[in-house]
Every structure is written in structure tokens, then in C-alpha cells.
Amino acid sequence: MRFILHGRFKIVNRIFNRSGQTATLRRQLPASLANRLHTILAHDKAQLLWSTRQRHAIAAEIQASLEHLLVYTTDTTDPWDVPLGLIIPRDYHLSSRGDASFARGRAYCLTFRFWFDTAWSPRTIKGATRTKTSSDKHVHINGLEFIVVILQLAAVLTRLEDCDAGISDPAVCFPAGIPDIPVWLVESDNMVSVIWEQKATSASLQGQGLVSVYAELLRLRHIQTRCEHLAGTLNVVADDISRNDFSLSFPARIDASCSKHLGLFPAESRIATGPYLEAVLQTQPGAMLTPSSARTVSTRRLHYLCFCRLMKCTDNWLLIGDDPDLAMRGQLQLVMYAIPLATGNSIYCWRIKAATVEQHVVGAATFLAHFTGRDF
Q1: Region for 215 from its dihedrals, namely left if φ exceeds 0, alpha if ψ lies in -120 to 50, beta otherwise
Q2: Which helix (H) or strand (E) holds 340?
Q3: Could you give the residue ranges of the DSSP H alpha helices within 19-75?
Q4: Rounded CA gap, 125 and 130, in Å?
Q5: How many Cα atoms are found within 13 Å in the side-chain-facing hemisphere of 190?
């Protein structure tokens, strides 16, 4: 409806301008108001539209939307109220992270133990990479990022329904029982997606359609959502999902990647280069870093290993194994590692900010995750 009326206004407005009325009004206004002519006339848009006494065709989907709004606003059996659980800020019960590119979208959730890697259709890829931005068929990266958020919400709602129906064991994910109104934290490295989720509105037509789908999913169940921005350099696992062939085992994936990158080096050096390249690929921290950033990450990880040596935690440096206690031990070690950092026992023996402490701990956690497969 808004799209049709806005287009009709542009047509009528062009006729209005050609008739010389705009120039006449501009001459009659004081100089201080001449530049604000369109703002002053903004409230006359509706009058200008409807004074033409023309009929506008209403598409079937617009008519369905109007009928839905009419039923929703006149239904007395469904009062307009909001549960307190959706108003009061609370700690989250489950979280997930996602990322999107022009080729695919991927995300994972540790609480419900799911991940997905969805390839976009050829039509979508063409609209995102080979279509002009002025075309109606253009697909913006912001839309792809928000589609990943929608897919995560759909997956979370499905898992909650499985828990309610007894298909999945709720005690595995919620030992204290399923909350009446769970809080879901979704982290995205796209700021526009964060704003769309928080405000439930968008200025673009594509964004409005996607927000509508997201809102319809929220009507299926009471769930409080929190969307927060996550720096792309910290969104390691979601990036790693898109780079791997999960039909192969972990050693096979490393061998395949190593073989591909060995071709960049001279033939006579590949025998000596192979072990070092394999070690680099196995501990690769997500997206490729600049040399300066790579040195910083490497130094912080070495500092963590020095901390483990001082604490005599050398029986299992990388916490490799299937023992469930290793997960708890890893979390405790990382928390203990933050204490000397905050008290001045950092790389250069001075106190560092809380954000820098977090980066040290995240660097150590992602380093361990490449060997153990756990997200500490």
C-alpha cells in the first residue's frame, strides 16, 4: 500500500511541479523558508493524492494484509497485553551466532547443538553480485545477514517445540526446566541486522518484508530476543563453518586445505613447508588477519601458554580429550587467566583495559577450540 501510494504521489507531484505552482509558492515565501518548501508541504501529500479522485488498484497481498489488520484490531478475545517476561531485561538462556556472505549463510547454537550452512540460490547470488543497486532485483548484503537471523529464530523455535513435545530431552539444554519465556541472544556482525531486530522496522522495502517474516515467527511463541553486535574478527566459528567441507573428517579437511595452499609455494620447498603450513591452518583464527594483528594474536596465545606453565597445568596443554571435565577445566583456566591480566601481569607488565583482557581470553579460547572442537 505504501509503495503504491508513494509511486502515485511522485507522478502527481511531477504534474504539480510542471504547472509552476512550486515556483509560485517559493516566490511567496520568505527567503528563510524557501529552502524548507518541501518540508512545509509534507502534510499536504495526502490531500494532494486524494483530491485527484482517482482509484488505486489493490493487489491481493495488500488486501490480505488489510483484512488481517482489521481482524487483529477488532478481535476482543485477544487482548493487547505484553507479559512482564518480555519487558524486564534478563540474562539469556540460550544464544546463537551467524554470518552471511554473497554465497551462503551459516550459524550455530551451542545450547541446542545445531548448526547450518545454507547456500543461496543462483538467482539470489546474481541479485547480490551482478545486479545494479537501483534494480528491483538487487539483493543487499544486509538482507542476507538478516535472513540468517530469521533462520536462527526458526531453528530455535523448532527445538523449543521439540522439547515441549518430548521429542528432545529438555534436561539436556535446560537442567532447571524450560523457562516460561526464554531469553534468546543472537549475535551478528552486521549492524543493520541488529537495528532491524531491535526496532522491528526498516526503511527499505526488502527490510520491511524480512522484518514482517521475523515478526510472524515471534507470534508463534513467547520468547524474549536480544540481538547484539559481534565484531567480525570474533565470529570465528560461523566463518569456519563456511570454509569447511563437513563431509570430510577433521584431519581430512586439514589435509585438503593444506594441499590447496601448498600450490602457492615452490615445488622444492613443499616438503619442508608442509608441516608448518598444516600447523598454521589448524590454528587459523577465522578470517585472514593483517601481519600486525596476526602477531598480536600469536603473542597473546603464547602468553596464555606461559600462564599454563607457571600454574603447572602442563599435563594437557590443549585440553584434548572426550572427558566432560575438560570443558569445565578449560573455562576455569580461562577465567583464572583473566585475573593476572587485570592485575598487571600482562605481556608488557602493565595494567590493561577490560576490553583488552577480553581479547586475550577470546584469543586463547579460539586457539583451544581449533584442537578440541569446544567453544569455551
Answers
A1: alpha
A2: helix 325-342
A3: 21-28, 31-34, 37-40, 45-50, 60-74
A4: 8
A5: 20
CA 126 to chain centre: 22
What tens digit of pLDDT does each residue of 92-119 get?
889 998 988 888 888 888 888 888 888 8
| DSSP string for 286-337 | SS---HHHHHHHHHHHHHHHHHHHHTT--SSTT--SS-THHHHHHHHHHHHH
C-alpha to C-alpha distance for 239 and 187, rounded to whole angstroms? 13
The rounded distance, in Å, linking the Cα atoms of 310 and 24 is: 83
Instruction: Look up cell 541486522; give the residue.
Output: 193
Report CA-CA distances (Å) from 95 to 33, 42, 85, 196: 52, 44, 17, 18
Q: What are phi and psi of 254, to 5 degrees?
A: -65, -40
Per the listing, cell 619442508 goes with: 272
Strands 183-188 and 224-229: parallel
Asked if 151 contacts 116 with a C-beta cutoff of 8 angstroms, the reply is yes
pTM: 0.55
Number of H helices, E strands in the chain: 17, 5
Fold of 84-234: Nucleotidyltransferase; domain 5 (3.30.420)
> How do residues 116-132 score in pLDDT, each as one tens digit?
888 899 899 888 888 88
Rounded Cα distance, 145 and 106, in Å: 10
Which residue type, as a one-letter code, is found at position 245? D
**What are the backbone dihedrals phi and psi of residue 348, each rounded to the nearest 5 degrees, phi first?**
-105, 15
Amino acid found at 130: R
